[in-house]
Amino acid sequence: MNRLWFDVLLFLLAGCKSFTLMNFKSMTNSSYGSAQIGDPWSAVTLTSCIVNCRIRFNNCFSVVYNEIHNLCTPGGKITYNVSRGSYQVGDKFYYTDHCNATQGYKLYVYKSVVNCFHLTTNWAVYPEAKSNCSAIGGRIMQGKTRDTLDLFLSFCKNVYKTYTFLGLTDIVTEGTFVWEDGTVLDPTWKNTVFYSGEPNGGSVYPNDDCAVCGSYSGFSSVFDAGCLRVPPEEHYYICELVE
């Protein structure tokens, strides 16, 4: 049986799972990898490697395929700064989106950030945005590292092009900003997150308890703005999956 017909047969055996083949991408950056989830096996093609992996393991979201030795190693979700194990000449790493697409999530790989985000298309006041994210297993996107903050600002500038909530508020105690996961904003990180002169405690509006990105800060940082105001202060928001 030639390789083409062999791959076609595997497609039929895999059923719906075979559609994920189209979404496997090559990753040449060695900073990314995944945990091995099973023993390697011989595979005559990359296609047979991926299809067999999907048939054998429900949690197969990556493979290392060696075209020289025709060897397939199954892997789980792609992560950052993880060892791919012992490297052999000819090894190539492939991964696919492991996020819950039915809830609108999509995998984003940006520097050290490897996470599922749902870029919502509706405006909401902060409590509503928080509730909506929670309902799909997420929370409003945070910016606790340089890379996650940069990714958030990129979404704000290039996708929404207008005000967007960051998952950071001082609703409970004025002046003490807390991330959505309950951790307090590190004072040494405050000047990086906030625009110059911000947060200003709402000099015009005393209840500016939310952090927002927008044209006011040149999309380079955030500033404090209202979470719930009359008329309602509605902004875009991004949900990040909590795993």
In short:
The chain has 243 residues and is α+β, with helices and mostly antiparallel strands.
List keywords for this structure.
243 residues, alpha+beta, Hepatocyte Growth Factor, Mannose-Binding Protein A, Chain A, 2 domains, 5-stranded antiparallel sheet, 4-stranded antiparallel sheet, 5 helices, disordered N terminus
In words, what does this structure look like?
Residues 1-18 form the signal peptide. This is C-type lectin domain-containing protein. By secondary structure, the chain is α+β, with helices and mostly antiparallel strands. The chain has 2 domains: 21-96, Hepatocyte Growth Factor (3-Layer(bba) Sandwich), CATH 3.50.4; 101-241, Mannose-Binding Protein A, subunit A (Mannose-Binding Protein A, Chain A, Roll), CATH 3.10.100.10. Helices cover 23% and strands 24% of the residues. It is built from 5 helices and 15 strands. It has helices at residues 3-14, 46-56, 126-135, 146-160, 187-193; strands spanning 25-27, 32-33, 41-42, 62-66, 71-75, 79-80, 91-95, 106-110, 113-119, 138-140, 164-169, 178-179, 210-213, 222-225, 238-241. The strands form 4 sheets. The chain has a 5-stranded antiparallel beta sheet with strand order 1-7-4-5-3, with helices on one face. Strands 8-9-15-10 form a 4-stranded antiparallel beta sheet. Strand 8 (106-110) and strand 9 (113-119) form a beta hairpin. It starts with a helix and ends with a strand.
